Each structure stands twice: as C-alpha cells, then as structure tokens.
Amino acid sequence: MRIGCPVCGDRDAHEFTYQGDGSRTTPPLDADQDQWFAHVYERTNPMGRHTECWLHTGGCRAVLIVERDTVTHEIFSVRLAGAQAAIHDEEAGQ
Amino acid sequence: MADQSAPIEDGCFDRNNAKLSLSVEHPDHLVQIGFWPQSAAKVHKAVATRFKSKKTMPPGQFVSKGEALCIRSAFDAYLLINVDPVAARGDLSPDACAVTDLSHSRAAIAIVGPAVERFLNCDIAIDFSLEACPVGSAVQTSMHHIPVLLLRHAPERFVLYVYRSYARDLAGWMADMASPFQAG
Amino acid sequence: MSAYRLAENGHLIDRDKPVSFRFNGQTYSGFDGDTLASALLAQDVQHIAASFKYHRPRGVMTAGSQEPSGVVTLRSGGRQEPNCKAPEVEICEGLDAHPQNVWPSLGFDIQAVNGLLSPIFAAGFYYKTFFEAGQTGWHFFERFIRRAAGMGEASRLPDPDRYERANGFADVLVVGSGAAGLAAALTAARSGAKVLMAEEAAHFGGGLLASSATINGVPARQWCRETVLELTGLPNVTLMARTAIHGLFDDNTVGALERVADHKAQPEPHEARHRHWTIHAGQIVLATGAFERPMVFDGNDRPGVMLASAAVQYAACYGVAIGRAPVVMTNNDSGYQSAFDLRALGVPIATIVDPRDTVDPALLEQAASLSVTVRTGHVVASVSGRKGVKGVRIAPFDVRGGQLTGAGEHLEADAVLVSGGWTPNINLASQAGGKPAFDAELQAFLPGAPRPNVSFVSCGSAAGVFDLQSALASGQEAGRSATEKAGVKPLTTPTPTVEPTSPDVRPAAVFDIPPRRGKGKCFVDFQHDVTASDIALAHREGYVSVEHLKRYTTLGMAIDQGKNANMNALTLMARAQDRPIEEVGTTRFRPPYVPLSLGAIAGRETGRQFRPVRRSPIHDWHVSNDAVMLNTGPWERPRYYPKSGETITEAYIREATTVRKGVGMVDVSFLGKIDVQGPDAAEFLNRVYSNAFLKLPVGKARYGLMLREDGIVYDDGTTWRLSEHQYLMTTTTANAALVLAKMEYWHATAWPELRVKLTSLTDQWAGMAVAGPDSRAVLQAVVTDLALGAEDFGFMAVGNGRIGDIPVTIARLSFSGELAYEVFTASHHGLAVWEAIMAAGQDFDIIPYGTEALGTLRIEKGHVTATEIDGRTTADDLGLGGLCSKKKSFIGSALLGREALLENNRLQLVGLVSKESRALLPGAHLTASGSSESAGHVTATTYSPALERYIALGLLRRGRERHGETLTARFPLRGDTHEIEVVNPVFFDPDGSRMHG
Question: Which residue of A20, C146, C758, C822 shows the fewest CB atoms closer than 10 Å?
C-alpha cells in the first residue's frame, strides 16, 4: 500500500505508523468522563471507507489524516493535521 | 572545538571505487527552525534573505549558499546546515520560531558514483531517477529501518544524514550493501 | 533405450561445450544450455524421483517451472536446496543433484511399499485414523509418518550465500516474455515509457522458443531474438531473466524473485544467490501465458507420460527425443500440431489418440501424409510399466457418457504425450483482482477485473487469446493501453504477420478417463499423490466446498500450488456435485506464485544485521573497560563492569555499594530526550503531565508523570526548564519514540493552536549520572563556571558550566537516591566529558556502574520503572497519587476518576523482604498463608547491599495497609515457595535526606 504524504510524496506503507481512528476529535481536557470514555473506548469498526490517523515515522514525521477503504486499501484522501495543515493550505492557495 | 569524537571512523569505508564511493563528512552545524502559521511569513523572509532565494521552497527541496544549506523539511520547519544556532535565529524572536541545535545529533555520509541510484534502491523504495528526484531534492525516508535524510547535490552525489546513535551500525550496513557494486 | 539425444536441433544447447554433472551419485555429460531434465532425458534417465506419499517412480512431466513430479535436491552442505524442478535447473560443471524422498535409494525405495497400502492412505488418512487416538497417539505415529512422506530435506547448516533485496521502478511492468509480452514491451518501449520486463525462465521468448510458426517471414525464435536485441539496446528498458513475479499487491506493488546465481556452481564473491525485488509499477501487463492441461487416467504419473508441448520443447530447444514410440493423446487440435512439430524435429510419432468423434479433416489429412495413425473416439485408458512406459491400452470412449465403452487393445509405446487443453495462467491477476470468469469454450478460467487500487491488463494466452497472430496483437494493445495510462504517448506499430494460423485449442470436455471396474491409479495432483478416487471419497464424506476439498485432500497445496491439478479437480468436483464448474468456484490464489527462499525475504537482515543497533557516544569506553553489554530494544547498554573474575552478582553488589558509599558514574545517554520549545511550551507540558508545570522556573528541573488518556500511568521522566521558551524533557529509554509520537499526535490533532515544537534530542546529548556522597566533590574538581555548592545548587537545580573547553548542562537529579548530578553535553563531547570526570574522580575511587547496579539502587529506593508501570497501574497504585493535580485537567484526568480505578482492593506498590536469605523470583505470585489465590506479584528483585537482605518490589492488593504481613511468594513453574515480609517500598533512606543534602 502506498500513502501520499503531502510533504514527501507517495511512499510505501512501511514508512508510516498507524495512530488510531482519525474520525474522532479529542475532547477538551476538562470534558466529562462520559465524553472521554466515548473518545477512548467507543469505536465503530467499518468495513469500507474509514478515516484514520497515520504518523510518517520513517519520513518527515507529519501527522496525517487518511481516508481509506479498510477492505480494498484504496486511499481516497490524505491531508495534514495540525499547524502544518494551515501553512500547507496557505502555500497551496498561492 | 577540541575533544570531539566522531560517530563513524573516517576509515570505515575502505573499498571505494569509481562505481561507488562512501565517505564520512563533517558538517559544522545542523539547526532546525520550527515555526507556526502566525510567523511563517517572517521566517520565510529571513531564510530567503540569507539564502538569496526568490521563492519559498516547497518541502522536499534544498538550496545552498557557499557551504550553507537550507532544507525545507516540513511545512513548518527548515533545517539549516553549516549555519550556527545564533546566526540561524538572527532577529527572529522566540515567539516566532523555535531554534533547535541538532549539530551533534547526526552523522553524514557522502555517496558518490554512477551506481548511487541502484545502491540506494537496495533498501529504499523511492524512485531516485533524475526525473523523479532531481538535483536539489531533500528526501526524508528510512534505510534499514533507520530514519535518514538524503540530499541530492549532483546526479551522482548524495549526502545522507543519520542519527548519531545509529551511525556506526548504518555505516556497516551501507559498506556491506555497497560491496557488490564495489567488487571487481 | 527410449529417450535419446537427436543428431540435430536444440537451439538452446551448445554442442561444442560439454558439461559434466552428477545425479544420484553418477556422473553424466550434457551440453552447455541443457537443463537437468533435458540432459538426463538425453541419457534416457527417466526415473528421477519418488512421489510424495506412495513413492511411485516419477520423471519429468513438463518442460517448465510448473513441474510437479521431476523434483530433485541440489548441492549439499549449507547450500543444499530441496524441491528444485529438473526442467528449471540449468546444468553447470560440477552440478551435484540428488533424488529426494527415497530410502535407501532411488532404485530400491523401501517406502514404495506405501503404494501397496494406498487404499489406507487415501484422502483424509490422518484425520480419520488419528481422530480418536488423542494427542499421545498422534505424536507417537507422527514421527514415522513424517519420515515416510515428504518432499526434500532442508539443510541444518548455515547458508554461506549472500541474499539481497532491491526496489525497482517502471512505468510499465511486463510479466512474461512470450509473444504477447514481447509485443507489449516493444510497444511501450518504443513509445519511450520506462519498461521493465520480467521473465521467469533463463531465456526470453516463452512458447516462441519451441514454435514452428514464422513471424514476419522469419522463424518465431528468430523474431524473438531480434526483438530482445532491440529491447536490450533501448536505454528505457530493463530486461530481467530468471526473475519470477510472485505477488501482485496493492497500488501495483509487485514482488519478484531473481535467481541470480542458481545456474552457477556457486555465486561469484560478493554476488547474491537470490535477490528479492519490490517493483513499483505504474501499469502492469500480465502476459503470463498458459499451461497445457494434463489428463486424468490410469498410470498418468509414470515416467514417460508428459505434456505434448513439453516434448516439443525438449526436441526443439534441447535436441532431445522423449521416446522412439510415443503415443499422443489430445482432446484439442493443438496436440496434432505438437505431433507434427515433433515429426519435423526428428521424433518418431506414429499414433494420435483423440476422444472426439469428429476432427478437422485438414488435420487428419496432414496426419495421413506423415503416416501417423489417428484413432478418433479413442483414449489411452491405462499405461503399463512402472519405472517407465512399456505400453498403453487404447480403448473406445463415449464423450457424452464420459466412459470407456470397450476394453480396447494393447499397444507398445515408450512415452505418452498428453494435451488436455490449455489453462490460462491467471494466478497474479486473481491475487489482485476479482473472481475469475469461466469460459465454457476453453473450459478454463479467465482473469477477472482488477481491484480498484491495482491496474493491470492481461493479454495473450493468459487472457484466453491463443492464436499467435491474435496474441501478438493482444500484446500490442495491452502495451499501448498501459503506456497511455502511464502518461506516455503511445506509438503504434503494425502487427507482425504469422504463418500458419495457430491450431484451435478449444477442447472437448474430456479430461478424465474413469477406469473400467474402478481400479487403477488416476492422478489429479501429482505432487501430493491425490487421485480421482480421493476426490470422489472426499465428496462422499461431505466435503463439498472447494476450500474444504483442497484442505482435506491436500490437493493444490504443494509447491506447484495446483497448476497441474486445479482444473481437473474442479471438473471432477463439479461432476460429483452435478453442478457447473463456475458454481464450484476456485480456491483463493495467494502469493507467492513460486516458492521464495527465506534468504530472499530476509536479504541482508541476518546475524548481526538482523536489526539496527544504537550506541551511546561513550560506547567504546565501556567496551574497552570490559563492560558486559545488554540490549534494551535497539540500544547496547553496559550491564556491569566485572573486575577480574567477578560474577554478575558480585559486580553489581560492588558497584551499588560504591555508589552509596563513595561515587560512581553511569551512562544515561540512552534516555529519551525531547526539545519542547515555543511560547506555548509550558502550557503543552502542563497538559501532558499529571503534575503542575506552568510555574516551573528557569533553571529548575521537575519529575514529570505522564498518563494515558484512560488514566493509567504511561511514562515518567524529568523536564528541565532551560529558558523561558525552551524545555528539555527526558523519558524512559524504552518509551522515548512512543512518547514523542504520542505528543506529536496530541499536538496535531487536539491542540494545533499551541505554538510549540517537539524535536528528538536523544542523539544530540550525551548524558552521565554522577552519584554518591562524593559526587559533588568530584564535579567541583572538574567543572568550571558553575557553582555546585549545596547552597548554590539545590536539589532539582539546572545550570550551565564547562569541563575544560566543553559546555555542559548539569541538573541535580537522583534516580539512585544518593546525592547525584546528571551531566549533559553535546554528544561529540560525550566521551571527553566522561573521561574528564573519571579522571577527576580517581582521587575518590570513582567507578563506572551499569544497568544492574542502577536497578539495585532504584529498587532500594522504591523508584518505579516499566516493571511497575506495566499498563495496568494508576499513579495512586504506585504511591504517586499526589502527583495527579487536582487543580487542572490533563491527559488522563477525566477517566482517572472511574470507580474501578479508585477501588481500595487494587494492586499497590509494596516492598518485599526475603525471610529465607535467598533471591526472590520476579513474576512470583503473592499469597496469604493458607490461600492459593494470588493477591499480587513480584515485579523486580535484587540483593540489597544497603540492607544486606534480598529484597524486591511488588504489587499487592491493598498493599499499603499490609506492611508487616508475612506472605508466600509462589512460582509454580519452578515449584518454588518463598516466605516474605511486606514493607514500605522505600527501603533505604525513606526521608530522602541523602539526595536532598
């Protein structure tokens, strides 16, 4: 499987480390126990299109949000997470 | 500065020939400049001024001015080689960017010769042909499971940077990888 | 004599270059270019192997890599390689080949007696016989069974050869170099695309090498030669022979095995034997050809029974005739072409047998003109002979009923050449694509469509296009479309013309000849000795799914992976179930398509290079000072420094004692170190640590505890504030990479607005801890520019100084519980600083100490490490509850308050003292007297020089309430019980006065 890192380009999957479900947002630290419980433990396990978080550990170390089909491994989109994303979007717009 | 011990002995690559030659390099400084969206413009300007470049480089490229190199290593970071940390910070305030001295954290190995691309492809699943990886490319990847940075200075010349703690092991690995190219 | 060398023909051999080799202990002579199969056949050595289960005499059945029967072992010693297919083995001077799975010899194989017991050894033998024998029964017999059945044996000696891996890139990868493959490669190459063509065999050309057709007026193999020459001359083309594509993976990533040196007596110095390629292809053209299909009849496994096209290959390519009186059996027109080709090459063919009643008159005419007898409506019902073909029984056959209709008559023969139709090789296409589609005319499966994230096109006979002219056109079109999809403008060239038209390969649906009276051995899977009756038996016993049939009978599970067996098996299954074949379906195609050596998979990652090693900047000093090293993950760390003749125990006791009484120094460069820098660095630290960090002053360090999101302790370390915006965070060695990744994750996904940069400094800094009552004095003797007196430099202070010319950063921290300092310096200076401190410490008898003594010291102080931070313990469990701030939220704070984490019955950190004056065992379970229920366990143990007792840390339910209790530590695996007393885990200096002094 190849993942298209926005910083480095298309790279082999073994350069990346899976970081978990990318469709969830971390609640504020002072959110209540129920919200944190849902965030830490509750997952759907879709057979098909899914949003994941990957870290480019064997490359530029960017944190990436990847939309991928868990059955066919087809990748639909890769975008940066974090502050890099804003800078990337700014430069892409130019 | 006195009293320095290098991670790799200069003589550890002893089979170099015209096809492929590995040698240890000693960059003076390696400094990372990390910044944030609010300060990106300021940092780009400072870098462009120092390196006399007209445009902001995209990640994956580097430029040089004399001995100094500037690598765009991420959207929010530059790596400067042979520029000391004080000079790297210049007029940029700590609010604008984080300057991290990494000068001792890497070893550098030059890889030279017509066999460079095939040599790198032993381990690395990246197309190093000139079309796909032109001179001026900065590639962050891994070799033998070890993160490395590769700069292409010329069609037949790369310089590889690796974490100091892995350096001796990677040098041994590279010497072994190189041996078929260097035989006969 | 049946098989022999022809006086003419054999364009792959060089008759001027004889080569001598050994097989089965005897020396033979062949020619340069011969395979082991062709060279042995030329000497009429047909019986070269014994079958897997029944030890039936076997010879080669094919001329290619799908060979199921003619399998041998090559070489000896560390280079011994079993299961080599004789038609693939290129002979070289000194080649030494042996038969396998025979005892005592090929000629006299005692185990052939298995053949007599064959009714017992039918399908499912092991399952049915040993179903109720139980484990003991099975294990008793298993030993004998393993020896009695099998393929070759692997060597137990180290393999002296070099194996490599490499990556390749191409716009268009062409798999297979037959007519369609060459046509595709030519189109793509001439268009300027970057082309890589991989051919499994030693020579390019596939079926063209034995074809009697002409292409553009020249013999097929000449066209092939000219095409290869053109391709070789183009700079954008790479041709790889002896390279089998074994797997087609996502995103057009392809695995290939290049057999670099198998055809040499041994590899050149520095040359690999095998190289595994991972090829990244923009587009893939699958020109993988087709296999001729065997037929199932009594005695179809005898040496001398062969595929018709294989016999043509042996004659055309190697100048070998497989017999003087061969009989051809074919259910399609291509068998006739093979017969005519053989005749033209000098091999006498007298009889063709064809189950069909009606045959193309042109073929009958041609046969008649060559005086070849054609018996239509007839089949070979059985073969006589054991180590070779002696004769055949030709009998009338009713195609409709699928049965013999008469006893027929005996005919003398020394070879049977069979053409049961043609099976497109769809293995790679099916690995990466959808369900294959059954083509009723070809009676075979064609490739399904590719999955969404692979892109390939099949062409030529692999796609069911068998006519040579059409195959060339099909290859050109595949090359054209692949080139275009790869983003290169394709060049069109006219399709070459072929003479004559290829024979029609569509077969009559006759693939098996059920014997009269049900007797006889009709093989479906030659490699695993699976017969037609085994398939019928499996069906009767209820194994109706094709996946079950495969596993129950082991059909298709040998090294040929069913290439010769699957189609016939499916036909028999379908008939037994009275269902169409497409409903029966196929089993899943999986990589590798050909066997892969483990060496090729490992490449150079063997021995010392198995995984990367990390070393401290001070490493060489440790080694030259006799340190015994230990691997912690990738790091090599000094474990202890034995003085002459010391055991590990004596060494660590001496080292720990010296630290408590005088001074010692330990290398801590291995610790994870992270630069946390930026205007929001303090806020970031305050969120990831459970204890307060916002107000840490510049020039101070603080112990930091990090939890997981679920409230369990994750990691700990110290963080030093170097300036207003810059912090140095240390982590445990083992978790360094994980903690950095976790923090980068939180930063990017949860708090992207925080202006902070996280960078690994593990390699930038060397660190050494100087510990013991004399540590201050030692450092005062060597450090300048920094006042280290007790009033100037208090506990947890951080400051910069110099040792000689070298800048150092010193923090007064203690892991050992003694007065201690961590001296950090940029790593190129690490060795110099270490040596300077050692020199200054000579007056104080300073010693180096390693991880063993470090462990002793920390256990004595109740400091927790990974043995207690085990992924189940909370801060409170470890006695660190006070470090979880009640005044802020932090990672883990929300879930920390869950009921189960606050229960009073939880495992809590305790100290344990042996009452038996011997070492406690880590992992032993703690039980109250009279109880066999575990109330906790021992986490880390040591002899304590400070207490002169054997002690340990442990986790015990309600441990804090139970100080003073006597418990038993049980280690059932060693039958050990040990009386211990529960105490406070801070065994030594409980008020910490030594490190705060």
Answer: C146
**Total length of chain B:** 184
Q: What digits encode the pLDDT tens for the residues C738-789?
A: 999 999 999 999 999 999 999 999 999 999 999 999 999 999 999 999 999 9
pLDDT over 80 (residue C147): no
pLDDT score for C550: 86
From chain B, pick out residues whose CB is under 8 angstroms from the CB of C724. 94
Q: How far is B145 from chain A (nearest CA, A)?
A: 8
Q: Provide the CATH topology of domain B30-101.
A: Alpha-Beta Plaits (3.30.70)
Instruction: Name the stretches of chain B with pLDDT < 50.
Output: 1
Interchain pair A19, C280: CB under 8 A:
no
pLDDT in tens, B11-43: 889 889 999 999 999 999 999 999 999 999 999
B105–chain C Cβ distance below 8 A for any pair: yes
| 3-state SS string for C361-430 | HHHHHHHHHCCCEEEECEEEEEEECCCCCCEEEEEEEECCCCEECCCCEEEECCEEEEECCEEECCHHHH
Radius of gyration of chain A (CA): 15
Cα four-point dihedral sign C471, C476, C479, C484: negative
pLDDT at B157: 98
Instruction: Please report the domains of chain A, with CATH numbers, ordered by start residue.
Output: 2-93 (3.30.2270.10)
Does residue C592 have a cis bond before it (omega within 30 degrees)?
yes
Q: Which amino acid is located at C801 in the chain?
A: G
Task: Spell out which residues of chain B touch residue A58, defining contact as CB-CB under 8 Å.
Answer: 141-142, 145, 147
Each residue's pLDDT tens digit, C829-845: 999 999 999 999 999 99
Ramachandran category for residue C645: left, alpha or beta (phi over 0 → left; psi -120 to 50 → alpha): left
What confidence tier does C1 reach under pLDDT thresholds 50, 70, 90? low
Find residue B163's DSSP bridge partners: B106
Check if the beta carbon of residue C786 is closer than 8 Å to that of residue C801.
Answer: yes
Would you call C806 and B144 a contact, using CB atoms and an 8 Å cutoff? Answer: no
**Does the pLDDT of residue C284 top 90, yes or no?**
yes
Closest CB to A59 among B56, B75, B141: B141
CB contact under 8 A, C612 and B34: no
| The predicted structure's pLDDT at residue B1 | 45
Which positions 19-58 of A are in contact with C (Cβ < 8 Å)? Answer: 19, 22, 25-33, 35-37, 39-41, 53, 55, 57
3-state secondary structure C38-70: HHHHHCCCCCCEECCCCCCEECCCCCCCCCCCC
Whether the per-residue pLDDT at C506 is higher than 60: the answer is yes
Residue C801 pLDDT > 50, yes or no? yes
Residue C569 lies in a domain: no
Q: Out of B4, B118, B177, name the one closest to residue C829 (CB).
A: B4
Cα C379 from Cα C512, distance rounded (Å): 10
Q: Which residues of A touch C249 (CB under 8 A)?
A: 1
Q: Which of C676, C748, C726, C679 is nearest to C706 (CA)?
A: C676
Q: Where does B11-27+105-182 sit in CATH, by number?
A: 3.30.1360.120
Q: How confident is the model at residue C472 (pLDDT cuts 50, 70, 90)?
A: very high
Q: Are residues C780 and C922 in the same domain?
A: no
CA distance C892 to C880: 14
Final residue belonging to a domain, choices C824, C856, C888 = C856
Q: CB–CB of C895/C936 below 8 Å?
A: no
Q: Beginning with the edge strand found earlier in the chain, give each strand of the sheet holding C672-677 in spatial order.
A: C701-707, C713-721, C726-731, C672-677, C757-760
Question: Is the pLDDT at C127 greater than 90, yes or no?
Answer: no
